[in-house]
Amino acid sequence: MKFSLGKWLLPVYAVLALTFLMIPIIYTFIFSFNDSLKSNITWRGFTLDKWLNVCEVQGGAVCEAFGNSLIIGAVATVAATVMGTMIAIAIVRYKFKFRSATSLLLFLPMATPEVVLGAGLAAQFLSVGVPKDMTTIILAHTMFCISFVVVTVKARVASLDPALEEAGRDLYGSPSQVFMRITFPLLLPGILAAALLSFALSFDDFIITNFNSGSVTTFPKYIYISASRGIPAEANVIASAVFLIALVVVVTTQVSAAARAKRLAKLG
Question: pTM value?
C-alpha cells in the first residue's frame, strides 16, 4: 500500500489544532470543580459546591458582572442588529450620495485597533461630559457591532432574488406586506447570524469596555481584575456553563437542520 503524506498530514494537523484549542476549555471546565479557597491555580480536590453556590463568592460579584455582560450584550445586539440591517438594505438596494464613502466608513471600526477605538470613545464621552457607566458601554458596543451586522446582512441582501419581491407586488401586496412576508423571512438567517456575532463580540469585549465602563464591571473585566490574585472557581463555572449552553444550541440546531433536510428529501 502506497503511503501518501498529504492524505495523513491534514487530518493530523486538524486533530492537533483542535486539541490545542480545546486545552484551555478543558482546563477551565475541570477547575470549575476545584475545592479552592482564594486562588484557583492548584488542584485541591473535587467538589460540586462551586456549581451549587456560584453566586456566593465575594458577595455575588461574579454573577453581577455576568449579568451586566448579558444586559449590555442583549441591548447592544438589538440596537446594532436593527440599525445595521436597515443600513445594509439601504446600501444594497438604493443609490444615494456618498454611498461608497458610507460603505468604506463602515469598515473602519473593523479595521481600527480596539485600543484606538476605546481611547477615542472615552475621550469623546469625556469631552461632552457623559459619565461612564453601563450606557456608555452599550453605546460603544453598538457602534463597533454595527459594522459586523452590516457586512453580514449585506451579503444576504445581495443574494436575494428581486423577482420574489416583484411577484409579491404583482399579487397586490403592499410594501409592508412584501417586506414582512417575503423579504424579512428570506433575510432572517443572515440577521440571526449577525445578531449572534454581535452578542458574542459584545459579551467577550474587554479593551473598549475597560476604557468606557467607569465603575461598572463586566464578566471579562472581572476576569482580568481577578487574574492577578487567581481567578475564582465560580468564574470557571460560569465560563463552563456558557460553553455548554452554546454547544447544546449548536448541536440542537445542526440536528434539527439535518432532520428537516431528511424530511424534505422524503417529500421530494
Answer: 0.86
